[in-house]
Predict the 3D structure of the following.
Amino acid sequence: MLHLPPPTPSDLQRAKQLQERFARSFAASNDDRNAPRTVVIVPSLTLDQEVLARISGVHHYEERQLCMLLLLRFPRTRVIYLTSMPIAESIIDYYLHLLPGIPAQHARRRLTLISCDDASPRPLTEKLLARPRVLQRIREAIPDPAIAHMTCFTVTDLERALGIELDLPVYGCDPSLYHLGTKSGSRKIFREAGLEVPAGYEDLANAECVGAALVELKKQRPELDRAVVKLNDGFSGEGNAIFDYRGAPDDSGLASWVKRRLPKLLFEASGMTWALYSEKFLAMGGVVEEFVEGLDKRSPSAQLRIDPTGMIEAVSTHDQLLGGGNAQIFLGCRFPADDSYRMEIQDRGLKVAKALAGHGALGRFSVDFLSVRKPDGGWRHVAIEINLRKGGTTHPFLMLQSLTDGHYCRDTGLFLTPGGEPRYYYASDNLESELYRGLLPFDLIDIAAMNRLHFHGTNQEGVAFHLMGALSEFGKLGIVCIGASYDRAEAYYRETVDILNKEGKAWLRNGGQ
């Protein structure tokens, strides 16, 4: 584990100067698609490694930001993509052939791939900082640092240190604002923005605090059947656990009953134990909240961006697709969010963005809600989480934007092609089956070519794959299905799954030949 010394005052001053330089260069070139620029992509999962290890194929998740290779559609943009291990050339070739209007060879000349050749379960950024020669190769690949910047999955002290080492600004929140994206920090920002939050308590430090909060929450809301316990730095629902109040005694015996039941939390992360979870809670802190119940319950999300000049932009809305025993795990998403509430979600997201901008936040982020239909047909929207990083809804939207060269309409919440036609998509990071194990990325591309599973530029509909590196070992991949309606997008998804299942079964029948 790399022991990073605290930043010195001169380090912090240099980081500030780099960000100021970025604001100036961004303002000068943002609207010019032909402006020269270099983007250094650092898809480091600088998150809790023990929790990450419980996600199937997680060491391939550095591929999720490969959608940003589509920045090469801008003819003077250079991209430097950093990874722990080399990415198969067939995967790179797949993305370059998605580029609209740019020859793949032209794009390939402007792409630099640099790998650490290190498959250890450590964050990529940590590996980079431990390799001075790799850092020098990165510097040498940047023609003009004055018009270059880093973009990261998340920004921590490690990413800031990397930016200082490379003399590059970072398009993301300064680590001093990291707490705003924790579960506790989210609740505070939501209240600042005037949004409803679930009944509960934040800034809980340990298991004893969790127990006390569960007791107080039940006293406050006697009708509650369940509560959610969340690690401050949990992600994709993996840090969540459910506490079941059913069978709880009256006030006199409630505290001792909760204490006995606490180790029996229902964890969303597979293989999680009370001993490990309580240890994580001691390290991270967290929250206890009511479990929001409802017969018709949705999980919409708003995506927003604060650019280096301070401008706030609504990027998109989604309905998240959740799984796991208590529907806490992110599986995929549908764009845009339901038309009965997507503008309400966008408006609430913009309120959060304004509050975050007041604290100096920067970059792309998302705001998650739970929405329950009310008896009058309207919706109750409860804000539950801010993700100050690129999440599971980021790369599908970037692929839609890049493939169609269209734009998001803030007034309607729809995405429109250059011809003014709306486009929808159904996306998943978790298309997983034993039938797919052993398939190489080249095999997937061959199956796609044989069955016309690709994006059709003529009608601007079709299918694009990602996370292909996880296919052979884990039988797992990601998919974005774009259509002229919700139904068309989901039909593409069902067709793709049917074809992949059919091909997988045929492969097994033929003895894997």
The radius of gyration is 23 Å.
